[in-house]
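[Discussion] Sanity-checking designs against the backbone

I'm trying to build intuition for which residues belong where. Below is a structure token string of 424 positions. I'd appreciate it if someone posts a full sequence so I can compare it with mine line by line.
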């Protein structure tokens, strides 16, 4: 795959470059060779990256545009945009605070063909598609849509870091047919269109959103502005996909995230946790975390099922409502932030005696990250400290200072008490 390093099937390659069409091309070609790309946020700090490197044990780190271009240029023709034999090894944070790679393993050809077919059948990718990429390609959802588009013979438009004015211009010049976004993108686009006018959106056949709860007013405007039948919501995680829901179904059942995707079945355990039965090609493990992998899976008469710890309700027709995300998870702008990871990083500051991180509602981002601190450090000192150890979405936006943290009788911090009186 590269003139620099001799790689073999099963090797891992860290991708530390901004997203582009060439980036997606390389992801697909690596997977076609049985090599696992590990897409990462280029804003990760050295301490964050060090733990991932330890877990992934990469054969190569692609950290320059020249190396990325060289690898694409030297891809053997038999792998160029070939059949992916697995999924990218995305890294997700766990409740232990240690990010863990999600490993799909190498698929046999039949499983790889089934994985590709289910995406194409659900989203209808074709050679005439133009996918507008407005979310970072190191995230699993935008990368999946971009991969499906290229593999169907379509093309990508990647205008760079999200800017509402730039995206609006691109809609007019490139006439995209598909787009994945998070609700924060829609809010910023709609605010911009209130100022400059709504562009011609008639080219879109698919606009899918996920990653955070969508405010009802934004959802209804989405349906109003885009072509009939073009807008969808889905519920899933880095580990796997659960549901897909046309907006028209949401209008009939406000708040639902839809029914199980084709080939899957949903059920709830006695505690209300959502489990999803999946085909064999959708299985995964957490690399280097066998106990966590075992806890995520159970056997059922219909096949293997997994959970990510989210809570929900199912109606008699199989529609799912989410009652809460996995314990303590903060979702800000579609990015998952686990409080314990932020706490572990900030506890290194000598002016912190105790700390608890939590999320509060935010009109723009869905939630924002906040921290309650016991100690002598100031907000300014902690903000500067966080910039050296945490990527931007993980840095607390607000600090409060307490004499003690509220705790249960067993010593667990009551995060809900911390955020109870705060709002956007």
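Best answer:
Here's mine. Compare freely.
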């Amino acid at each position: 795959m590269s003139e620099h390093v001799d790689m073999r099937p099963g090797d891992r390659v860290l991708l530390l470059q901004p997203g582009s069409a060439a980036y997606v091309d390389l992801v697909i070609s690596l997977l076609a060779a049985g090599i696992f790309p590990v897409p990462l946020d280029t804003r990760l700090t050295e301490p964050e990256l060090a733990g991932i490197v330890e877990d992934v044990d990469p054969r190569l780190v692609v950290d320059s545009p020249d190396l990325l271009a060289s690898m694409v240029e030297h891809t053997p023709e038999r792998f160029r945009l070939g059949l992916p034999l697995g999924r990218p090894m995305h890294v997700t944070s766990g409740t232990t605070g240690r990010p863990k790679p999600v490993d799909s393993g190498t698929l046999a050809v039949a499983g790889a063909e089934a994985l590709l077919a289910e995406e194409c059948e659900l989203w209808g990718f074709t050679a005439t598609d133009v996918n507008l990429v407005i979310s970072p390609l190191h995230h699993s959802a935008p990368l999946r849509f971009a991969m499906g588009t290229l593999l169907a013979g379509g093309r990508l438009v990647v205008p760079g870091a999200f800017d509402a004015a730039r995206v609006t211009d691109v809609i007019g010049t490139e006439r995209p047919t598909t787009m994945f976004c998070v609700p924060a993108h829609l809010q910023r686009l709609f605010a911009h269109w209130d100022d400059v006018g709504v562009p011609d959106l008639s080219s879109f056949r698919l606009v899918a959103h996920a990653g955070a709860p969508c405010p009802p007013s934004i959802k209804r405007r989405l349906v109003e502005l885009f072509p009939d039948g073009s807008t969808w919501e889905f519920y899933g995680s880095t580990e796997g996909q659960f549901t897909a829901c046309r907006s028209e179904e949401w209008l009939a059942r406000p708040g639902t995230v839809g029914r199980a995707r084709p080939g899957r079945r949903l059920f709830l355990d006695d505690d209300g946790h959502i489990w999803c039965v999946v085909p064999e090609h959708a299985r995964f493990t957490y690399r280097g975390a066998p106990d966590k992998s075992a806890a995520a899976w159970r056997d059922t008469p219909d096949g293997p099922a997994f959970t990510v710890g989210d809570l929900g309700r199912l109606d008699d027709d199989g529609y799912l409502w989410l009652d809460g995300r996995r314990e303590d998870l903060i979702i800000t702008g579609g990015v998952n932030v686990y409080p314990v990871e932020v706490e572990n990083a900030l506890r290194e500051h000598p002016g912190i005696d105790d700390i608890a991180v939590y999320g509060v509602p935010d009109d723009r981002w869905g939630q924002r990250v906040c921290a309650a601190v016991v100690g002598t450090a100031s907000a300014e000192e902690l903000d500067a400290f966080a910039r050296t150890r945490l990527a931007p979405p993980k840095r607390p936006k607000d600090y409060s200072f307490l004499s003690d943290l509220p705790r249960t009788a067993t010593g667990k911090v009551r995060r809900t008490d911390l955020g109870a009186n705060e709002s956007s």
